[in-house]
Here is the input.
Amino acid sequence: MATSGEAPESWYLALLGFAEHFRTSSPPKIRLCVHCLQAVFQFKPPQRIEARTHLQLGSVLYHHTKNTELARSHLEKAWFISQQIPQFEDVKFEAASLLSELYCQQQLHTLEKDLVSACDLLGVGAEYTRVVGSEYTRALFLLSKGMLLLMERKLGEVHPLLTLCGTIVENWQGNPIQKESLRVFFLVLQVTHYLDAGQVKSVKPCLKQLQQCIQTISTLHDDEILPSNPADLFHWLPKEHMCVLVYLVTVMHSMQAGYLEKAQKYTDKALMQLEKLKMLDSSPILSTFQVILLEHIIMCRLVTGHKATALQEISQVCQLCAQSPRLFTNHASQLHTLLGLYCLSVNCMDNAEAQFTAALRVSDLTTHQELWAFIVTNLASVYIREGNRDQELYNLLERINPDHNFPVSSHCLRAAAFYIRGLLSFFQGRYNEAKRFLRETLKMSNAEDLNRLTACSLVLLGHIFYVLGNHRESNNMVVPAMQLASKIPDMSVQLWSSALLKDLNKACGNTIDAHEAAQMHQNFSQQLLQDHIAACSLPEHNLISWTDGPPPVGQFQAQNGPSTSLASLL
Here is the structure.
């Protein structure tokens, strides 16, 4: 122990020397190194030494132990103390650099679903960047916080935060690429927010701005003048990654709106870009982008009558998830949901139920409430088609009652819940009740250009009017349903509409029109039947039996032929 008259530098340098000796020993004696550094605080050192020692402790703990919480605590103390000391930038920025690295490696707690801690840390970052006068990096922190608040569905906090971010982004004058990248981040959050709420029509102006913004970025050169503020030397995504992200949100919008050919076009562009990027870049975010794109294109294929291709792409998602446990954890529920939708399309009701049940079991309701509602809606459709699951069905419908306390804010999912109620009432012969639900679906889907829901509602209303003998009103529903289904294109609705048109024209004595509709129905039936047989003959069809554990990549066995009923297609 140093005497009271000894200069502070002497005892400090002695303890620092011991600490460095223990750190560089072979093997390192980290516990003794930490004890030496902690002993510095017993001397009540000046602020400069206190800050530097916190930095050294944080660095040692971060690099040599798993105690990230204690490392973070020391680094944050180093950073806060260094703010009060003039001309002490080396400690200030090294602490900030290590903190940012620690936050990134810990994925801001989001991998552990600790979104509250993540938001707090981002708030610390935003405050730091405000102190050092970096409005650009402050916007990055605030936008990241907005993203987490969206995940938590804290919409009351999201709106003022996005408003503030919009002001910062528009007022900031600096590197053109950085400014445009901020605008992309901001607009991606806005578009995602609209799409989560199922507001497909309302989002169009923001989506158009986003697409224009990415076009602007693609014309800018990376060799622009570097920012003068060191705290501005951050970039949230390379511009090539941003292009893929913009393609992705465009696909999401096209899917919800029912523009499936457009969705397929943008998916193809994005996947080609990803393949090129993955040759040079092993960033995990590229695999995440790829999986999300495949998830959307698979749903497209199932609607457009390309089940065999969809099944092979589901297998591709399985392979990607098998290569990354973290990716599988984040997408297991979506993967089972896709298999459930495939099972529905090939009339494997027992397997569909098992897949949707598995999807619910592994889903995280805290951050995937819309996915949960989507799964429950589709599981309800399984029970309706099976016809003997009344109690389970009513239990589900109580959880997604569109008239009372609907669990999510999504306009699209609430409209779908009305459709499911209408479908049930139709099968139960309660036609007036069915019409009420379906008209509510039509009102909501027309308001936000939800074309596929509109087509489904029209054809079901047409079927109800046909059963009631009101052929004229039935025709008024079925004709636009067929036109819309052809535009999407939705093979199942086209099959259904053509069957109704055949019966309607036959009942009205329109022999030529009835023959034409019958021919259309035959063509659709043959296309769907051939695709059905092709899909069920693939070895990947065995995936429908997988409901637990990691995806069974490489365990597919070829089948002798399809084992599912074709009756629903004919």
Q: What stands out?
A: The chain has a mean pLDDT of 87. Residues 511-537 form the longest helix (27 residues). The CA atoms of residues 47 and 81 lie 7 Å apart. The chain has 24 helices and no strands.
